[in-house]
């Protein structure tokens, strides 16, 4: 969601996504592609994204990669 999105809208969207990810059909589709349907709170997801960004940034720095 864009920065500044009202918390009520984020909560409503999260509720809908969690509902869809919990359906057998969605779980089957993810499994068929080698994935797993996992849901979380918006706060948990933000922490995950931040940690992943930091991890990838460190790997890129160590490898000497740059963005052109």
Topology of helices and strands:
Layout: H1 7-21, H2 24-32, H3 42-63
The residue ranges in which pLDDT falls below 50 over 5 or more consecutive positions are: none
Count of folded domains = 1
Number of helices: 3
Largest sheet features: none
Give helix % range.
55-70%
Write down the overall geometry.
flat
Annotation, overall tally of beta strands: 0
The SSE order reads: HHH
Which structural category fits the helices and strands?
mainly alpha
3D structure, described in words:
The protein is mostly helical. 68% of the residues lie in helices and 0% in strands. The radius of gyration is 16 Å and the shape is flat. The model has no long low-confidence stretch (mean pLDDT 94).
Summarize the structure.
With 68 residues, the chain is mainly alpha-helical. It has one domain.
Question: Which characteristics define this entry?
Answer:
0% strand, 68% helix, flat
């Amino acid at each position: 969601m864009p920065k500044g999105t009202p918390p009520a809208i984020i909560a409503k969207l999260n509720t809908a996504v969690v509902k869809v990810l919990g359906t057998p059909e969605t779980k089957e589709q993810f499994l068929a592609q080698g994935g797993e349907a996992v849901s979380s709170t918006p706060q948990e997801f933000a922490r995950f994204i931040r940690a992943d960004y930091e991890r990838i940034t460190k790997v890129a720095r160590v490898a000497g990669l740059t963005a052109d």
